[in-house]
Amino acid sequence: MTQPADIRRERLHRYGMNEHHYTALDLAASGFPALPLRAGKVPFGNCPRCAGNACGGRPNMKSPGPCQCPAPCHAWAAASTDPDVINSRPWRRAWAMAAAVAYHPGGGGLTVVDLDDADAIAWARENLPATQTVPTTRGEHWFYRGRMQSANGVRPGVDIKSTMSYARWLGFGTGDMAPLPDAVRALVVKESATARPMPQAVAGLAAAGGGQCRHRTPTFLERGLAMAEQRIAGATGGVHATVYATFLAVLSTHGRCGCLTDAHVARLFTAAQAKGESARHCTEAWNNARTRLGL
After folding, report:
1. Cβ neighbours of residue 136 closer than 8 Å, sequence gap 6 or more
2. Is 175 left (phi over 0), alpha (psi -120 to 50) or beta?
3. Residue 139 burial (CB count, 10 A)
4. How high is the pLDDT of residue 209?
5. φ and ψ at 105, to 5 degrees?
């Protein structure tokens, strides 16, 4: 992944980049969505509304907050493999101030077992298969091929970072990367398929005038849902933002008409979950889109 030092220095000078900016492009080229971090491993707000956490996002902006931007613009949801995004003017300003580079492990098909101390490392060596590791400030990151639901504090000193999470980039370290084992998956309680929350039905949100939907034709509605499913399925980076934007587009067209049913919304949720989104996040994204549209 990394370039020889002399080539890196020449390219850094030629394109006016710093090491963090260059590393992010290197990561993106290898399929790992990257983002800049401020001091304290905190993401930047990538739009004026979210600068300095002015949007009222969640603490330290480590998760996409309830901002009113067109799409979530910070934390893991903003991580990108698109060089045009990474090289954009707002991001160039962020790279100039960045203290580190982070990446979205799940977006690159990885799961990171974050071991915070010596006891956690000792536990992992006894209970998990050997894999590629890299030292951290206090412990180690263990890399496995495959993605899963992220969770913090699955046991003392152990966090799981994969989907809907980010990790600081410290290099790939040493060792051969192993497939994601059941022992790691078992650390996170899986959501039961029968317990997946459904979004609030939008069929009762019909417009005034009898609730008759001007789009109520099988062809129009089916084509729109199929395009939405394809848009989600085709996302190669920034899946969270794509899901939110797709939900927003569907609701902006059909949300006030009364033509959407739970079965239609379930199709969108299924497409999003196939890309690694959790049922909880699908519900949050749906409700955030409804709130933005005033539904």
Report:
1. 114, 115, 168, 170
2. left
3. 19
4. 32
5. -60, -45
